[in-house]
Amino acid sequence: MVTINPNSFPDKKLRLIITINGPDIRGYIHLMGLQLVSDLCSGGLQGASIGSTDISLTPGKIRSGNHTADTQTAGSVCLLLQAALPCALYADASSQLCLKGGTNAEMAPQIDYTVKVFKPMVERFGVRFDCDIRMRSPSWPESCPTK
């Protein structure tokens, strides 16, 4: 669980043209990140699926509150945090993110790096968040149901 304190953010329209590879762990983590950002910013997300090459995200008002993302794989919770943090910082009140997935995924920041290096660095810029690690998960492929 991650709790984040906010500010405010102007609405902008984005059109993303991305290829989500899949169906493997990288595709799922990218898809979950897009869905989490869309949820945080009350966005209209179109075309977001594994294998998609044209994704459109039209953000609305950034919402504070509780937001959950579950990769259902060993996909990195740290990458989900990196996607969600900029939006959560601009909400009008505190937010709580419940991120489920891998804490030590390959080719992604490790949870210990996030807590011991990233968190203190962003705190120097006034960003405050708490990180409550409920359970550590092994790295992929051992815990990946898509393998």
UniProtKB/TrEMBL annotation:
Residues 30-136 form the RNA 3'-terminal phosphate cyclase domain. GO terms for cellular component: nucleus. One of its GO terms (biological process) is RNA processing. InterPro entries: RNA3'_phos_cyclase_dom, RNA3'_phos_cyclase_dom_sf, RNA3'_term_phos_cyc, RNA3'P_cycl/enolpyr_Trfase_a/b. GO terms for molecular function: RNA-3'-phosphate cyclase activity. Pfam families: RTC (PF01137). Transmembrane segments: none annotated. This is RNA 3'-terminal phosphate cyclase. It comes from Fundulus heteroclitus (Killifish). The lineage of its organism: Eukaryota, Metazoa, Chordata, Craniata, Vertebrata.
